[in-house]
Structure formats: structure tokens, C-alpha cells
Amino acid sequence: MNVIPMWYFPDTKRLDAEKLLQAEGNKHGSFLIRECESQPGELSMSVLDEGKVKHYKIKRSDNGHYFVSKRRTFITLKELVEYYSTTEDGLCVRLTQPCRKATAPQTHGLSYNTADQWEIPRSSICLLRKLGSGQFGEVYEGLWNSTTAVAVKTLRQGSMNSQDFLREAQIMKKLRHPKLIQLYAVCTVGEPIYIITELMTHGSLLEYLQKDRGEFVGMPDQVEMGAQVAAGMAYLEIQNYIHRDLAARNVLVGDNNTCKVADFGLARVFNSEGDGVYDYEDNEDERVYEMRQGTKLPIKWTAPEGLHDNKFTIKSDVWSFGILLYEIMTFGQTPYPTLTNFQVMQRLRTNYRMPCPANCPKRIYDIMMECWKDSPPDRPTFETLQWKLEEFYDVDISEYDDTNSY
Ligand code: ATP
């Protein structure tokens, strides 16, 4: 009978491997070998080194042998593990013990308690302090039932039709992923409508990056943030759900640079005001959405087919993701910094794209450019974007090997 080795974690993504290894019970040299769901056959070894996790690609030679470094190949993974358990031989640390498997059940926070009863009484929410405001209302830190810390989004009167919102909220509540802000409950009886979600300690990614300016957040963190957003979006992609307003202002940050995508689906239900006249006037507040045929659009984040034909798909979200990557790499600079919204509309028609930002690795810029391909089907999927960013810093020792050595 084939016994699955303790260190083999199939279908485990890079970020999940990091969480597992950094959990209690593991020690220096704890490790696991994972096969990535999105890239069948691709193996990586994740190893805990002084509290940090390093990832190594495990490759296969022409005759099917496994190796981390070409200098030494193994017929089986078990032999590879046994070898690196006796010596580091190029790894950061000698392998010590297989990663412990998670046993604690995942919690769903407040949403669990409100599974069948997600319209909650307004009186059960106490607003504590204002966290910020967006164009449709204000956001507060609040306490639900005097026990659970939550974020409460209060929607300005008339900003949406409550029937439309309720329909959308039904769907939003079912979308559950560690990289998506969980919708917990709503108060739609009376005004203003409350949207109650999980609370994120550091607020929006845009403000977080603008405040930091590279002091604590470095390139690996920036790439990792991009990977987290791509992971949340890859989930929406398989759920056939479109965000429509992906931007750094709609990503929220928690402890340890944890990023989660917020406000998905809301863009669809917001009421537009005005007469639908084109209005590309530049506004001091660059976030302000422009009007077009009864729809409000964040011009600098919107794909050409959205701007010109009002067409929104997951591929237009991919375009916006490219802009969001630009925001991440520039610590929250406004995209197309020298152009007005109107100029952006015009320049996109002539295939203009933003140049590579200063200090941005060429490989990341290449990813942005892929997202900004003119033809939507040519843009990558979020699944691909996720693994490209997750594997960005994986160590490929074999690249540094003497190619003649085996
Ligand atoms: P817009 O509504 O125009 O898209 P926005 O996304 O910045 O802009 P809101 O979603 O209303 O506006 O959020 C306003 C601010 O409140 C955010 O910038 C963020 O700092 C804070 N905030 C929103 N949601 C949360 C949350 N769940 N946890 C912590 N802070 C939050």
C-alpha cells in the first residue's frame, strides 16, 4: 500500500505553505513539498528558516530524476528528502521535520453566526469611530452585539436601490476566501443602509503604501501583496464574478501586510446620478468616477472596452489589476501621473501604455503589460497572475549550477 509521506502537501499554494510552516509546533528546518494546484506537475519545497519561509523549485531531469540542484539527482522524492535531512548542501537549512498539518477548524467569524439571518437589527451595532469615507458614504469601526469588532459601511441616502443591493448582497455573502473581505451582515431596514464586514487594522492599501513610501515595505512585500490580491481575484474568477472596481483604494490591509480585496460587486449596484453626459473634467480627487451613459467609471483603472463600449468582464478586472500593480510598485502614485483623465482616454486609443516605474523589476512590468493587452482574451487569467507573483522569489538553485555537472 502506498502511504502518503507526512511532508507531502498536494494542492497547497505558496502562501498557505507559509502559514502552515509558521504555525505553532514547527521548528527551524520544518518543511513540506507541495504540488501547485494551478501548475500540475510543478513541485516546490518550502522550508522554515529562522521564522521565515524559503521556497525551492524541485525540477526533473530528462530521465525523470528529481533535483533541487543539478549537482545531485534522486530517483524518488523520498530520497531527496532523506539526503537534505542529513546535509544542507546549498539549502538555507538542513531539513528537520515535516510541517505539522493544520487541525484547527477555519472560522467564518460573524458570518457563521448570521448564516441564515444576515439582516441584523440596527440596534445590535454600535458605531465606535470613523475610519474614513468614500464617495458613497462613511466607514466606521463598530461593535456587533457588544462583542465582535466589525467595519460598518454606511451608505448615503439614495446611493443605491436597496432591492438591487439585497440581491447583490445575497451573492456577495456566499463568496468566501481568505483574500476577500467577508461580508458579515447588512441592515437594510431603514436608512442609512449598513454593510457589515470584517475589520482590517491598517485600512486601504492605497493609504498604507502612501504612508510607508518604502520605509518598512520592500519589493518582496510589494510582490507578495500583488500575489494576495491576485489570489482573491482568482477565486472571483472561478466563481464567474466580476469586481468592476479593482484598485488599491479597494484593497484593505491587516496585520503582517495581509491584503484582502474589498467592495467587489458594489460598483454594479450603485446608482448613478446625473444625465449620463460625458464628463472627463479632471478632478482634484483623482478617485472620483467619471460619468458615462449613466455609469460612473474610474477612468484610469478601466479597460478600453469598458471605457468605449461599457463592456465589463473578468478580463477588464485583469486590466485594472495591472494598474493596481503599478500603484503597488510606486507606493500609491496616481496612474498616468502626467495625464488628465481625458488624455488617458485619448492616448489609450493609440495604444499608449504607462512606462516601467522607477525601481520596478522588469519581470513585474512585463506582467503589467500582459494585463494591458488590447484584446481582452490575450490578457492572463488571475490564476496565472497569482502563481507568477507567488513564485516570483522562489529559489531556483539549478540556475546557478554548473550545467556540466551531471
Ligand atoms: P470609494 O467608495 O470611492 O471606492 P473607498 O473605497 O476609499 O472609495 P470606502 O470603501 O467607503 O471608500 O472606504 C473608506 C475608507 O474607510 C477606506 O479608505 C479605508 O481606510 C476605510 N475602510 C473601509 N473598509 C474598511 C474595513 N473593512 N476595515 C478597515 N478600514 C476600512
Describe the overall structure.
There is one protein chain. With 406 residues, the chain is of the alpha+beta class. The protein folds into 3 domains: 14-101, SHC Adaptor Protein; 113-198, Phosphorylase Kinase, domain 1, CATH 3.30.200; 205-390, Transferase(Phosphotransferase), domain 1 (Orthogonal Bundle), CATH 1.10.510. The protein is built from 12 helices and 14 strands. The strands form 4 sheets. Strands 1-2-3-4-5 form a 5-stranded mixed sheet. A 5-stranded antiparallel sheet has the order 6-7-8-10-9. Strands 11-12 form a two-stranded antiparallel ribbon. α9 (314-329) packs antiparallel against α11 (362-371). The longest helix has 20 residues, at 219-238. The two termini are 33 Å apart. The model is unreliable at 272-293 and 402-406 (pLDDT under 50). Residues 131-136, 139, 151, 153, 181, 197, 199-200, 203-204, 207, 249-250, 252, 262-263, 287 line the site of adenosine-5'-triphosphate (ATP). Adenosine-5'-triphosphate binds at residues 131-136, 139, 151, 153, 181, 197, 199-200, 203-204, 207, 249-250, 252, 262-263, 287.
